[in-house]
Amino acid sequence: MTVTQGLAAAIEGLSDLFIVLLLVAAAVFAGLIVGGLFRLIARSIARRQHASLAVELTGQIRGPLRLLFPLLALALIQPLLPLPPALDQVYHDLVRILLIVAVMWTALRALAISEQWLLQQFNVEIADNLHARKIHTQVRVIRRIALTIVLVVGIAALLLTFEPVRQIGTTLLASAGILGLVVGFAAQKTLGLVVAGLQVALAQPIRIDDVVVLEGEWGRIEEITLTYVVVRIWDRRRLVVPVTYFIERPFQNWTRVSADLLGSVFIYVDYTFPVPALREALRRTLEASPLWDREVCVLQVTDSREQTLELRALMTATDSPTLWDLRCEVREALVEFIRSEYPDHLPRLRAEMRPQVD
Q1: What is d(CA 12, CA 14) in angstroms, rounded to the nearest whole number?
Q2: Domain 261-344 = CATH 3.30.70.100
Q3: What are the Cα distances from residue 122, in Å, to 11, 58, 126, 149, 304?
Q4: Does residue 212 contact residue 251 with C-beta atoms inside 8 Å?
Q5: What would the pLDDT profile of 240-279 be if each residue is shown by its tens digit?
Q6: Residue 267 pairs with which residues in a beta bridge?
Q7: pTM exceeding the 0.70 threshold for the entire prediction
Q8: Residues 335, 330: Cα–Cα separation, whole Å
Q9: Domain 128-255, CATH among 2.60.40.10, 1.10.1060.10, 1.10.10.10, 2.30.30.60
Q10: Of all residues in the chain, what percent are helix, strand and coil, respectively (each to 5)?
């Protein structure tokens, strides 16, 4: 090769490199412009339609869009680039990997923003939060399912980008039928947990912040995942149980239909005690308490034992913690009333003394 030919080849190489850099820069710039226009148009349409979720999405996924649209432009200009076959393949694989990552980032960001927006629309801090807790439960479980699907599909797409991995996967799928059965049996329990998580999200035997009694413990549902449920016990311990527990085993849900509850207080007195006086004392105690919801106020004689009468006071409150405090308050007030007003009518043990006969 002569000096002239070498110089011409170098100039041609520099020319091709300049064209590649120019096309890449133009594609990136055009992608940024298109992404910005897309976001502005989508945001304008969403505002006109009063779609607050769409407005929030278009405002918060700015970062993923700045990566996604330039990558789409780079993928479109690949046939125009004067690259050698080896570099062309590297360019193709690199753009494809980055594009998959950008799509995954966009999807994950959209899921997080959608979950946050939906949860903000339904406040669980209000007194009547039954519907809000239902929505919170569904949104959180469905978001975890969608997150798992996005990650699995994205990682699979990344692995299929590389030819050696694709060939290994094809070979394994073709020749490992028995291994697949073994893995299927091994994963049966995990799949059962996932299916149970879906059942909990749809049928909703429990919801976030539900009051439940299970394994002899009273607590609130704090977290629901695809595989386990965290129950916050009244003494601040956490009871972690598999999600299948709430499908296969009985448990108490005190707030399944509504948060208000009916509570009872038992008092034991002597047979000579005037029950109407205690009934009036119960009424006065409840009317003076801010914990009572003004619905149920009942005092009944529920049993007559060998030595005492069993009196049951019924009352209602807006939720289980309030009811617990109200029951303690009423129990203390009724015992104090009996002790101060009718001390001679407290439970007593009677004995008959007979004179001895000589």
Answers
A1: 5
A2: yes
A3: 66, 22, 9, 26, 49
A4: yes
A5: 998 888 888 888 887 777 666 788 899 999 888 999 999 9
A6: 311
A7: no
A8: 9
A9: 2.30.30.60
A10: 60, 15, 25
